[in-house]
Amino acid sequence: MEHDAGVNKLQLHLGASDYVSSILPLASEQMSPLLSNEREGSEDIQQEPNKEFPKLLHYASYLIHLAVFGILGVLTRYTLDKLFGPSVGHVTSDKTILYLDLPSNMVGSFLMGWFGVVFKEDISNVSEYLAIALTTGYLGSLTTFSGWNQKMLELSVNGNWLFSILGFLIGLFLVAFSIIFGIETAKGCRWLLRRLNMMASESETGRCKIKAKVEEGGFKHRLAVIVMLLLILGLLWGVSGVLMIAEFKNGENSYLWIACIVGPLGVWIRWFLARLNGHGLGSTGLFNWIPFGTLIANISAACIMAALAATKRFVNTRDCDIIVTGIQFGLLGCLSTVSTFIAEFNAMRESMHPWRAYVYTIITICTSFFLGILVYCVPIWRMDEL
């Protein structure tokens, strides 16, 4: 009953705002209470212009929020890779189906259930910028589809095709379960907070009060937040630049600082591509249930990462390895996303047409893997034959 109520409430919201979901095509269908964070954020500027806040500052605020939280996502992904990888936890490895980015993808998918599904509206009532920054910026950068696809390509290039197939199947199962577990635990937390009277009422009056309190600061409050985040972004970029120069010749983590510098660009591109979600193909909106923005971001990032991996293998110098790895980990890791992908998968699975979730998944994985074989595996096989 709680789920049905949430569905009806979301349908009313979609109808009232004339919003087309990028996850599911029809507002009349039963759908998961998840709105497309990326497209919603990129279109908020046009849908709800603020007379006191210039449109240019709206764009700047979104971009700065995304950049800061994107860098934080890169740093978190690096930490989880090291924590569970061969150097510390010995759980993940480049040579097994438990690839290095699996913990990051699972954690990001779990948190997407919290911040992108259950508590998204509550966060949006406080700040739309924060909601987009957490989901699109932080969780989108914490998770990476291109890294997942590349690890499976590296297994297949050595003839471990079974490991590659199992890596995709087990990886998909784990991230799908992670978001379900995140949604269920978040619902439990919400219920507990209600029981303890620690959460604001979900009535329209309660939401209006929250909105009013947030907007009391007006232009000055938002401008102060932008300035503060801009200083943080400058600090992050400055420290990353200094550490990159200091460690480039001798340090083993210099690629991380390159990743922090170029990572925000990947987040911004993915955010703008999200405008394609929900529109479909052509003027008739053919296949508008496919989120083409996310699809293009993931496939393009996977292909570019495969091309760079092949380049790194052919050039085979330390400087090239550092620069290419930094671009792969930062730019392409942030351009692709598992958290949004699995949120869309979960929403389709709970809709009236659950088969769409599996078609969307097959298109994403098979296309990325096939193109990766052409770009990465085939040149290496030819090189080995010479």
Automatic annotation (TrEMBL):
Gene it is expressed from: LOC101514144
Principal subcellular localization: membrane
Organism annotation: Cicer arietinum
Topology relative to the membrane: Multi-pass membrane protein
Function of the protein: Fluoride channel required for the rapid expulsion of cytoplasmic fluoride.
Family named by the database record: Belongs to the fluoride channel Fluc/FEX (TC 1.A.43) family.
Transmembrane domains' residue ranges: 56-76, 96-117, 129-149, 161-183, 223-248, 254-274, 286-310, 322-345, 357-381
PANTHER family, per the entry: FLUORIDE EXPORT PROTEIN 1-RELATED
Cell compartments where the protein resides: Cell membrane
Gene Ontology MF term list: fluoride transmembrane transporter activity
GO cellular component, one term: plasma membrane
Pfam families, alphabetized: CRCB
Keyword annotations: Cell membrane, Membrane, Transmembrane, Transmembrane helix
Protein name (database record): Fluoride export protein 2-like isoform X2
Reaction it catalyzes: fluoride(in) = fluoride(out)
